[in-house]
Amino acid sequence: MKEDLSNPLSLGTAKVSKLLMHYALPAIIAMITSSLYNIVDSIFIGHGVGAMAISGLAISFPLMNISAALGSMIGVGAASLMSIKMGQKDFASAEKILGNTVILNIFIGILQLIFFLIWLKPILILFGAGEETLPYAYDYMKVLVIGNVITHLYFGLIALLRSSGYPRMAMNVPIITIIFNCIMDALFIFVFKMGIFGAALATILAQVLGLSISVYHFSKKSSFVHFKKGIFKFEPRLSKEIIVIGTAPFLLNLCSSVVVIFINNSLKKIGGDISIGAYGIVNRFGMLFVMIINGISQGMQPIIGYNYGAKKYDRLKSVMKMGTTIATIVVCIGAFLSIVFPYSIARMFTTDPTLLEVSKQGLRITNMAFPVVGFSIVISNFFQSIGKPTQAIFLSLTRQMIFLVPLLVILPPLFDSTLGVWLSIPISDVASSILAIILVTRQMRKLDAEGLRVTSDE
């Protein structure tokens, strides 16, 4: 008899490879679609608005990452905790997590809205905006800041769709959202000539559509976890657990913002605004593969969390082996394309000859160490999925801050060119990956010992 993989209880009984395919494939497709949208969005802006608009978009990355950091703290933390609670058969807490996710996202979103509306221009200047790029960055971000409550709720509920047993819906909602976004992008930029402002407006309108679909799903009583009376009461203990577990992705995105600020300012000082635009292209392409790895990690998360809560460690280890293998293959493809076809990749975004040359160098150098990035990201998400944020936070800090920031301070002046900035990234990737291997090896030994104790008690 075929097992119903849509039932969350199957996470502890079904074949691990089938579960990984069932949960990871929709997440990967959703992430690829999201990354392709980001690429298409940049292509529309690059060809429809201009090279400086690409640089303005790159200036906006840190601020978008900070917003994503706050959203990830709630969404990913809630999803990880929900999987653990369902593995423990604590379904009442799972529904309270749903309610508190909505409360926390609205509260944090409003606070963020107020702060960034007041300080938006000074922040963008701090992040590297110049006289030519500031108008583009400001027009883009002011729309996203106003709509950030919608953005937080949209991503938070999608994360819970996956953890509550609906991975296909967690795939379909972003796909519908992104298709609508691309249509509106083309309409606002090329037909109504709304420029970069139109691109941002298209993003928010698309997220309104996606959020509406998710809210409708969780409003249905037939959904395994759904809105009901009493779950929207603020629970300090659950909310604290959500935030603690979600601290790792929060710091990861926050560190990414700090790193991008360093990179943008280093590139502006050495190569000017055009170099910042080149980094925007490099970042967009690299994120395609990082997002695929994140999709794999998201698919692994409910399986790891459930089986960790149920103390089925052999199943947990099996999904880790499969996930890290697939992730490594994916990033090797990314490294190959970056090294062999950098000019073709850059040409998708722009026809500006200077921007093409700088982007070509950046793509080749920054993605040299891509083959080790895949399993490093999976390992960090593994610790997060089992409710051990300290290790996940440490790994996030090593890659983004402890290694990369000092390198960005040392290497650019040493080379006196953008080469120093580009080289900093692969060197930090290799160093942090070594630490990730050491930490996950120690954790697996602890799980082996715990598994032996569980077996002897039985």
Topology, number of strands: 0
Q: First CA to last CA: what distance? A: 29 Å
Q: Biggest sheet: strands, sense, closure?
A: none
Number of helices: 15
Mean pLDDT: 85
What's the overall geometry? globular
3D structure, described in words:
There is one protein chain. This protein has 458 residues and is mostly helical. It has helices at residues 16-48, 51-87, 91-126, 134-146, 148-163, 167-191, 195-219, 236-271, 273-309, 313-340, 342-347, 353-366, 370-385, 389-415, 418-457. Helix 9 runs parallel beside helix 12 (353-366). The two termini are 29 Å apart. The model has no long low-confidence stretch (mean pLDDT 85).
How would you describe this structure in keywords?
458 residues; mainly alpha
In short:
The chain has 15 helices and no strands. By secondary structure, the chain is mainly alpha-helical.
Question: What secondary-structure arrangement, pairings included, does this model have?
Answer:
Layout: H1 16-48, H2 51-87, H3 91-126, H4 134-146, H5 148-163, H6 167-191, H7 195-219, H8 236-271, H9 273-309, H10 313-340, H11 342-347, H12 353-366, H13 370-385, H14 389-415, H15 418-457
Helix pairs in contact: 1-2, 1-6, 1-9, 2-3, 2-4, 2-5, 2-8, 2-9, 3-4, 3-5, 3-8, 4-7, 5-6, 5-7, 6-7, 8-9, 8-13, 8-14, 9-10, 9-12, 9-13, 10-12, 10-13, 12-15, 13-14, 13-15, 14-15
